[in-house]
Specification:
2 domains, mainly alpha
Length: about 140
């Protein structure tokens, strides 16, 4: 196992300990490292049988989901942001300009979900969420 892999593993472990998940977006940086890209590559190597058993065991200690998609990660993250917003504000009156503490434009995402709900297509989006666990 090379030092670059160990360094990135240490970072994803730290991310997991801070966030209780490894749902990092594919282009997301963590501590100035493109950790999302690295983790996406590990998932791809796993799915194609090119990841060593040693690395698999280490990543599985972090409850990695090998088959989660970027779309699912985004939706799960946004739902969690909404739950956090509700805890802090007691409502979901999210303005279209509202940004989270980490500068994600939750307001824009929320408006899109309301539009999907009005069109009656949000149920299709929810059915795509195989990996989200409420709470």
């Amino acid at each position: 196992m090379d030092s670059e892999w160990r360094k990135n593993y240490s970072l994803i472990k730290e991310y997991y300990e801070n966030n209780l998940n490894t749902n990092i977006m594919s282009r997301e940086k963590y501590k100035n490292v493109e950790l999302g890209t690295w983790l996406c590559n590990q998932r791809q190597k796993y799915r194609t049988g090119h990841l060593s058993n040693e690395k698999i065991k280490l990543l599985e200690k972090l409850n990695i989901d090998w088959y989660i998609t970027a779309h699912e990660i985004q939706i799960i993250r946004c739902i969690n942001y909404c739950m956090e917003y509700y805890k802090e504000n007691g409502n979901l009156n999210i303005l279209n300009t509202y940004r989270t503490k980490d500068n994600y434009n939750l307001g824009l995402w929320f408006i899109k979900q309301k539009t999907l709900a009005r069109k009656g297509t949000i149920e299709k989006e929810i059915k795509k969420l195989k990996h989200w666990k409420k709470g």
